[in-house]
Write a structure and sequence with these properties.
- This protein has about 450 residues and is mainly α.
- Among the domains are: about 1-145; about 305-430, no CATH class.
- About 75% of the residues lie in helices and about 0% in strands.
- It contains 15 helices and no strands.
- It has helices at about 10-35, 45-75, 85-105, 120-145, 150-165, 175-210, 215-235, 250-260, 260-275, 285-305, 310-315, 320-350, 360-395, 395-405, 405-430.
- The termini are close together.
- It binds protoporphyrin IX containing FE (2 copies) and fe (ii) ion.
- The site of one protoporphyrin IX containing FE has 22 residues, from α1, α2, α12 and α15.
């Protein structure tokens, strides 16, 4: 850590990890309700638990991105953050908003629009926090050295904050409502967040492999160009059945197929940089998470996304467990694992120590990634059977669900592995045992 102001990232990462624990435990509870449907039905119904699970996910991933920006921008721009105080105020607003949202959900107050259920005042809070963030980070970048990494990061973060405005627009017309809703949900994960992912991955590769900046920048431009070219019109794959004109079936099918390219490029990029790199960086766990993130993102988003993106296929699979399988692996690979890669890289630096607890950290990688992979398989099998019985044979929804018991039980089992992996990760990040602290340099030479 070269700049004092980078320290704010530590607070962001701590809150993010707390919410991560809540998120996966919420998921586990939701998974248990699939096994024993009446669990907590009166006290905290399934829809509320699901909301906490998905909202906590989005909020902690965003906190991780904000923290990553506060960590890497000073280093890239070669100057302190514009204002450390503003960064803490922003975090405080987000924490109050999150607690407010969870409190409202528990007493049954919510907007009912998946992922965007937050009460209006919380949405405004998020908007204010986003503005503070953009001001703070932009002024830092403008005053310092400009690199491709910060330019792309900033572009992604500006666009994702601007898209938040669509969260406020909720027309009565159901088709329009859905169109705007997808402009947040899809244009986040399949366009703007991808830019953030590319920038963070680029930064990690720069630090971990020692490959020349020029090489990394060339890759980043290709990734960004293909992500935006495919991802914007790729939104069409959500417009097939919501009452929009039929041409969306072709636009969506064609452009979302191209969306596989940037994910393939990110995976190739990561492996190539490691292969070409001269540096033998001591933080092997951060390298494992970086390679793992780009690989699982390719499978979760690229392969499992393509699986159901052509309109002829989606006609049958829409809204089945196939969707849930894809949603889990894509979010986990692209954004969860990437954030954990950044935490793994930055936390030792923020604490001024050599990389610690690497074996535990790497064990948590395999436990979590194995669990998510198994969950994806069980949900994919469940979804295939569901698609056949429900959409082809024409059986009733609940009758079909009854047939899927075994898969839901196995999904719960894989969820236990994921939760254990997550707790192990947090332990490895936060608890530095005396005997494993090696007397290493405070920062790695050359950083
Ligand atoms: C970091 C890991 C996880 C990520 C990224 C994640 C992500 C998500 C997402 C994006 C959704 C919404 C899916 C959709 O709309 O199709 C969801 C729902 C859900 N998740 Fe997770 N989740 C994770 C961990 C878990 C775990 C450990 C369990 C435990 C079994 C779990 C169980 C569920 C359940 C039951 C739902 C509701 C599905 C439904 O409504 O049918 N998740 N999760
Ligand atoms: C990291 C990137 C991605 C993430 C995090 C992600 C996540 C998700 C989630 C959570 C859903 C469920 C939304 C809902 O109905 O509530 C979804 C739906 C969908 N995703 Fe992705 N996705 C990603 C990339 C992709 C890509 C690249 C493709 C295509 C190649 C794709 C194809 C689809 C399709 C077709 C649906 C609609 C499924 C349906 O009709 O039920 N996704 N995605
Ligand atoms: Fe999409």
């Amino acid at each position: 850590m070269k700049y004092q102001s980078q320290k704010v990232a530590y607070a962001y990462f701590l809150v993010a990890m707390g919410l991560f624990a809540i998120q996966v435990m919420g998921g586990l509870l939701a998974g248990w309700i699939y096994v024993a449907p009446n669990t907590l039905a009166e006290l905290v119904p399934f829809n509320i638990i699901r909301m906490i699970h998905t909202n906590a996910l989005i909020v902690w991933l965003l906190l991780g991105f904000f923290g990553a920006a506060y960590y890497l921008v000073p280093e890239e721009s070669e100057r302190e953050l514009f204002s450390v105080k503003l960064a803490y105020i922003q975090l405080a607003i987000l924490v109050v908003g999150t607690l407010g949202a969870v409190g409202s959900y528990l007493v049954g107050i919510h907007g009912g629009r998946e992922f965007l259920e937050q009460p209006l005042w919380v949405k405004f809070g998020i908007l204010v926090a986003a503005v503070i963030f953009l001001v703070n980070i932009s002024l830092t970048v403008l005053a310092g050295r400009k690199t491709a990494i910060t330019n792309i990061l900033l572009m992604g973060l500006w666009l994702l904050c601007l898209l938040w405005v669509f969260a406020f627009i909720n027309p009565d017309n159901l088709s329009l409502d859905k169109m705007y809703w997808w402009m947040v949900v899809h244009l986040w994960v399949e366009a703007t967040w991808e830019l953030v992912m590319a920038a963070i991955l680029g930064f990690l590769m720069l630090k971990l492999t020692g490959v020349d900046r020029e090489v990394i920048e060339k890759w980043l431009y290709v990734i960004v160009a293909t992500a935006l070219f495919s991802g914007i019109l790729g939104t069409g794959h959500h417009f097939y059945w919501i009452g929009t004109p039929g041409y969306w079936q072709w636009i969506g099918s064609i452009f979302s197929t191209f969306e596989v390219i940037p994910f393939f490029a990110m995976m190739s990029f990561a492996f190539l940089m490691v292969w070409k790199g001269r540096k033998n960086h001591p933080n092997k766990a951060a390298l494992l998470w970086s390679l793992g993130a780009s690989t699982v993102a390719f499978f979760g988003a690229g392969v499992w996304g393509f699986l159901h993106t052509l309109h002829g296929v989606n006609f049958y699979t829409h809204g089945t467990q196939i969707t849930a399988a894809h949603g889990h692996l894509a979010f986990y690979g692209a954004y969860v694992a990437l954030n954990l890669a950044m935490f793994t890289y930055a936390m030792p630096q923020l604490k001024g120590r050599a990389p610690y607890n690497q074996v535990l950290n790497m064990a948590s990688f395999w436990l979590m990634t194995g669990g998510m992979a198994f969950m994806t398989f069980t949900l994919t099998f469940a979804g295939t059977i569901q698609t056949h019985m429900q959409r082809i044979v024409g059986d009733y929804f609940m009758d079909v669900q009854d047939q899927l018991d075994l898969f839901y039980l196995m999904r719960f089992g894989s969820g236990v592995a994921v939760v254990l992996g997550a707790l192990l990760f947090i332990y490895a990040m936060l608890v530095v045992r005396r005997e494993v602290v090696e007397p290493g340099p405070l920062t790695v030479p050359g950083e």
